[in-house]
Amino acid sequence: MPALSSPVSPSGAATSPRTLLVTGMSGAGRSTALKVLEDLGYEAVDNLPLGLFDKLLATSDGHADHDAERPLAIGIDSRTRAFDADAIVDRIGDLRAEGVDITLVFLDCSGTELTRRFSETRRRHPLALDRPAADGIAREREIVAPLRRAADIVIDTSDYAVSDLRRALAGRFARAGVDPLTLTIMSFGFARGLPRDADLVFDVRFLANPHWDAALRPLTGEDPEVGAYVAADPAFAPAFERIADLLLLLLPRYGAEGKSYLTVAFGCTGGRHRSVYVARMMAERLAAAGWAGSVVHRDKASGASAAADGAGAGHGDEAALPGREQTR
Description:
Helix 1 (about 30-40) crosses helix 7, helix 4 crosses helix 5 and helix 9 crosses helix 10 (about 275-290). Helix content is about 35%, strand content about 15%. It has helices spanning about 30-40, 55, 85-95, 110-120, 135-145, 145-150, 160-175, 225-230, 235-255, 275-290, 305-310; strands at about 20-25, 45, 60, 65, 70-75, 100-110, 155, 180-190, 200-205, 260-270, 295. The chain has eleven helices and eleven strands. Strand 3 (about 60) and strand 4 form a beta hairpin.
């Protein structure tokens, strides 16, 4: 393996970020693991030629080419240019002696399961392009044996689904202060259809409708007067708290399953009053519990208020939807 230089600061101390070297058997999930680590905030690089390690880790005048605070996840396997398992193990030892925080992660899998995976995906094993996959698997196991023996962490994916691998990696390598789940709280109007990207939808049309108050009709759920009107409904507080409790139960479970994005949508008739207020208040409630998210009001500014939230028959969107219930 080509000699690699290590990043050092002007004072001579190593300055590289945490680095994961992800390797293992072809078909054991290395590419999936790198995608998961990327979702966890790592800078992921796959099949990096070993001679380029120094460029990825190096700093210049204390500034890295990449975000110096962002950890690295580097994928290598037997196809990597200049691959030499023994030399890699030796170099890892040298890097650690020089102060580099590097962890070797080896993804293993049984030969039977690897053969099944290559058969199902109709891919050829990289070391057995003209022979049965089992031959390539056996050969690769010999080649990467030094890496498996030296690995800090061995993850056997023989019985893993993708979600299992996500949990295993998140449990070991999730970054402090980095939430793997990107949360969006959305308001919308049923009159304009369900949001296509909503994962959870709550219908808040059971609440008193500010549209029927002439003074509130031109306003939106972001105005205090509308908020006070909606919050005064006796059903608001108990329903709101039950929904919040449900979300606080579900959010960590979605995160543990490896879900990267979650959109929670609240809908009223036109998307200007009730849903806007509830979405805003729910975002604040979840943020106070440690689940900060972005807030999107899809229909708050769409069209005239009479057409947007609760216009009667013959007005706005509802007039174009025959057979729709006109109850507000």
